[in-house]
Amino acid sequence: MPQVSLTVNGKTSTVEVEGRTLLVELLREKLGLTGTHVGCDTSQCGACVVHVNGASVKACTMLALQAEGAQVITIEGLAAADGTLHPMQEMFREHHALQCGFCTPGMVMSAIDLVQTHPQGITEDEIRHGLEGNLCRCTGYHNIVKAIAAAWPIMHGKQVPLAAE
Amino acid sequence: MNAAFQGIGASVRRTEDRRFVSGNGHYTDDMNRHGQLHAIIKRSDRPHARILGIDKTAALAAPGVVAIYTGEDMQADGVGGLPCGWGVKNKDGSPMAEPAHPVLAIGKARHVGDPIAVVIAATRQQARDAAELLVIDMAALPGIAHVRDAIAPGAATVHDDVPGNVCYDWHIGDKDATDAAFARAAHVVKLDLLNNRLVPNAMEPRCAIGEYDRSGGEYTLTTTSQNPHVIRLLMGAFVLHLPEHKLRVVAPDVGGGFGSKIYHYAEEAIVTWAAGKLGVPVKWTSDRSEAFMSDAHGRDHDSTAEMAVDAEGHFLALRVRTIANMGAYLSTFAAAVPTYLYATLLAGVYKTPAIYAEVKAVFTNTVPVDAYRGAGRPEAAFLLERLVDVVARETGIDRVELRRRNFIPADAYPYQTPVALEYDSGNHLKTLEGALKASDWAGFPARRAAARAKGKLRGIGMSTYLEACGIAPSKVAGALGARAGLYEVANIRIHPTGSVSVFTGTHSHGQGHETTFAQLVSDQLGIPFSQIEIVHGDTSKIPFGMGTYGSRSLAVGGSAMVKAADKIIAKGKKIAAFLMEASVEDIEFKDGKFSVAGTDRSKTIGEIAFCAYVPHNYPIEELEPGLDETAFYDPKNFTYPGGCHICEVEIDMDVGTTEVVRFTAVDDFGRIINPMIVAGQVQGGIAQGIGQALLENAVYDDQAQLVSGSYMDYTMPRAHDIPGVAISDEGTLCTHNPLGAKGCGEAGAIGSPPAVINAVVDALSEFGVRHIDMPASSQKIWSIIQSSRLPMAAE
Ligand code: FES
Ligand code: FES
After folding, report:
1. SS3 of A100, please?
2. Which of B307, B399, B397, B384 is nearest to B353 (CA)?
3. Pairing label, strands B500-504, B532-535
4. Which H/E stretch holds residue B462?
5. Is the pLDDT of residue B263 over 90?
6. Is the pLDDT of residue A159 over 70?
7. Which pLDDT band holds residue B794 (cuts at 50, 70, 90)?
8. Is B181 helix (H, G, I), strand (E, B) or coil?
9. CA B630 – ligand 2 centroid, Å
């Protein structure tokens, strides 16, 4: 069986996988990182979003072998070693942006990418359209939008909250 | 309110969130058992077909395959069919048709997705590969998808023992009084409407792990369920014939349910039984596409509604005929949904004196239909609130005024409706006036004109809904056909050093029970919120329970907790009286302290607990040690949440797309424990209601092939489809439970669809549109606008 070597949340592993194994299967089944979820089989729900080399990727759209040499961050890799949550995780909690929590890992990973790729500020509309690839059945999205707007100034070291009310 | 306050009424941030935002949730599919095998279900790709033979040879020879079982294999081993939890009677008193529902199809496949065989292999991929090699010889039969086709003369028969495909033909209300009122009405307004079929789509696909422990002969099922005790009861008693003490059912973190995870599904029985057969754990996880064809669907009603109205616009009578789609088999609570959860709600908030409803439930070659967020009440609210708007239009009475004129007045409570229910409380005028103000209803004409100037059609619509939660009491429900009790159970265990474990028979799959219930118990016992843990979802820990559905958890499960807390306090008083040498009658309990009335002597509940577990100085002659109490609570009635939803839409005239631009909800949920969580439930429920009204539709073609079988074809609401809702509360307390709570989980999905469609019809009023069926898709709306433009196009 072919092998793939990759670094996930700072830890390098070499794993045997079938050619058809998806990155999300490798994370969940081989590395036991079950925070990354699988919500669909058509790459539309976004429950599986992780960061690969700094950009958000649906881990169900990528073969494990394509991650050779990649730096991968999953939801388990966000909090600091002492357990301090990432500002986006903290804002999701503060703004009640999750109910069942199943979409949450993918939402948080997408949201971080969204904030990072909008260094000049982000509008409510940009947040809503930026979440195009993430489905949530519980929250009705509004609190997720609020959480992301609230995380923006913290992540960019600004005082003034921007955009969405 | 000070920052530290965490009792009733505080928006405490949720306890469960830390594990969910960190990826540390424990959902069923996150768990793997030592030595487990994987199951793949081979399903029918035909809507309706005879199964002539199944050839396992090639599949059994495939790598990793351990076993393949068919329906006949399971039946031969004594496995029973899936039971229905509610029996409805026909008009003539005879029982409904209840055809066999084998765990795996026997003889015939009756819908796309009907499970036919299970392939069990070392890995999921191997099981999937082998399932491809399984040869199933099938002879196609004509498929039926739609209810009118099912009852047409000469229609194919879904179950050979149910000719005509009618499950039941049921009615409620006074036919003669209704007909008489119609005969003398000044106006009769008639409306045909469809309530579109929906796929629940909880984001977590279903999953089940079966285990068997040879040493004690015990089975464990870990499953994505809203009610583990109900699954244990149904699967143990009817399907696998196992006694409760040999069957443990665990429902860990569950990623949303919305009703679809109430039912006992075939896969739960298959993995549990197969684990016993093979002596190793067996795991099955659904794909999303598989979920589309195997999770129970929702709604799917075809109705005709008529309102008789006098010259002043007073409703005289309502007559309703509904055909409800049951799908191919009766799911666990399917029979109750279009009857006792639907037709009993047809009075709504109106004092209509006579109501008569007939409901025919029919079998088709589609996925079984059962409760989906709201379960019957959204269908009732949609029918009634659409009809009221049409009455307003056709009598020329303003739609707000027409509602005011027909409301049950606040001083008429308790109010007996003509369709069985007795409402305990409510104030519909108050929620209406609150919503009119909050939505700036009066300012709408200016907003419409401004939209028109941008080339957009703007409409406004409302619904003044009422629903029923916490289905009860057990005795009444039993007389109406329920085959289970409808109480709830709570066990409060104060530990020796004062922390508390609360065991509840309800289940949280997004509702935030670990927070809300801890607030409730903290309030009752005066023990800090952080010292209280809520335990749910495991039949080996919790005494019993009926689970979470029908927005019952607070009104029923919370009431059981209050009763258990009362028992704790009663026992604590006896201990305190002994310790402080006072009489029990003189002991008062407040804020976690037992004090002797009129003195400064007191003992904290922590001191009392310690004394109860270390009974050195204790009334041991009269009182058992320990501080651990259980209560069962059987409600006296349903609770009746209600409110007013107001929706404003803008329609793009060129492409027909509808944007919900404003949404206002003013609700009456009775006592609220955590306003943040309640608002979250409302926003989420309204998102599902907007989804139903504008986007979602489970489409079958005329041969009953499922056309919308994945997220490629089924439109889920996304972030830019759903606005932030302006949410407020005008509560009246429930009069018959100790909390005064009514429930809030489903209301959003009940009140919103008619508000949205009323707004869409309002926006399109200049095109002569009287009604539009859900979903009001851009294609439908574009066609309406285009057809009115045709003469211009022809120029
Ligand atoms: S699992 Fe749904 S997008 Fe990846
Ligand atoms: S919180 Fe349940 S799907 Fe988003």
Report:
1. coil
2. B307
3. parallel
4. strand B456-466
5. yes
6. no
7. very low
8. helix
9. 32
CA-CA distances (angstroms) from residue B95 to B90, B92, B371? 6, 9, 21
- What would the mean pLDDT of A29-51 be, rounded to a whole number? 98
Q: Which domains, from first to last, does chain B contain? A: 36-141+206-285 (3.90.1170.50), 301-471+637-789 (3.30.365.10), 487-633 (3.30.365.10)
**Residue A136, ligand 2, Cβ within 6 A:** yes
Cβ atoms B696, B357 nearer than 8 A: no
Q: Which of B21, B30, B722 sits opposite A98 (nearest CB)?
A: B21
pLDDT at residue A162 tops 60: no
Interface test with A, best of B12, B20, B24, B253 (most A CBs within 10 A): B20
> For residues B323 and B326, what is the distance between their CA atoms, to the nearest angstrom?
10
Tell me if B690 sits within 8 A of B775, measured CB to CB: no
| Rounded CA separation A65/A19 (Å) | 7
Q: Is the pLDDT of residue A164 over 60?
A: no
Q: What is the per-residue pLDDT across B708-757, written as a single tens digit (0 to 9) for each?
A: 999 999 999 999 999 999 999 999 999 999 999 999 999 999 999 999 99
Find the DSSP H helices in B625-746: 675-690
- The secondary structure of B134-179 as a DSSP string is -EEEEEE-----SHHHHTSTT---SSTTSGGGEEEEEEEE-HHHHH
Residue B99: asked if its preceding bond is cis (omega within 30°), the reply is: no
- List the alpha helices (DSSP H) in B205-337: 228-234, 266-278, 288-294
Residue with tokens 């509702």: B511
Q: Is A46 in the pocket of ligand 1 (CB under 6 A)?
A: yes
Residues 99-158, chain A, touching B (beta carbon < 8 A): 99-105, 108, 125, 127-129, 131-132, 134-146
CB A13 near ligand 1, within 6 Å? no
Distance from CA of B89 to the nearest CA of A (A): 35
Full set of structural domains in chain A with CATH: 3-77 (3.10.20.30), 87-155 (1.10.150.120)
Burial of B312 (0-12, 13-18, 19+ CB in 10 A): exposed
Q: For helices A142-155 and A104-116, give the axis angle rounded to 10 degrees.
A: 40
Q: What angle do CA A164, B1, B6 make, to 5 degrees?
A: 90
Report CA-CA distances (Å) from A73 to A106, B561, B788.
Answer: 12, 42, 54
If you compute the radius of gyration of chain B from its CA atoms, what whole number of angstroms results?
Answer: 28
B529: Cβ contacts below 8 Å, ≥ 6 apart: B6, B7, B12, B518, B519, B522
Q: Which of A26, A138, A139 to mutate to test the interface with B (most CBs of B within 10 A)?
A: A138
Alpha-carbon distances, residue B673 vs A92, B525, B678 (angstroms): 21, 15, 8
Question: Residue A161 burial by CB count (10 A; 0-12/13-18/19+): exposed, middle or buried?
Answer: middle
User: For strand B593-596 and strand B422-423, is the pairing parallel, antiparallel, or unpaired?
Assistant: unpaired
A38: chain B residues, CB-CB within 8 Å = 29, 205
Distance from the A95 Cα atom to the nearest Cα atom in chain B, whole angstroms: 8
Inform me whether the pLDDT recorded for B5 exceeds 90: no
Give me the count of residues in chain B.
795
With beta carbons less than 8 A apart as the criterion, state whether B546 and B486 touch.
Answer: yes
Question: What's the rounded Cα separation, in Å, for the pair B606 and B496?
Answer: 8
pLDDT at B606 over 80: yes
CA distance A159 to chain B (A): 23
Residues B530, B255, B21, CA angle at the centre, nearest 5°?
A: 50
What letter does residue B97 receive in the DSSP assignment? P
Show the DSSP H helices in chain A as ranges: 23-25, 87-94, 104-116, 124-130, 142-155
* Cβ(B792) – ligand 2 distance below 6 Å: no
From residue A31, alpha-carbon distances to A8, A11, A36, A42 in Å are 9, 11, 11, 23
Q: Does ligand 1 lie within 6 Å of residue A106's CB atom?
A: no
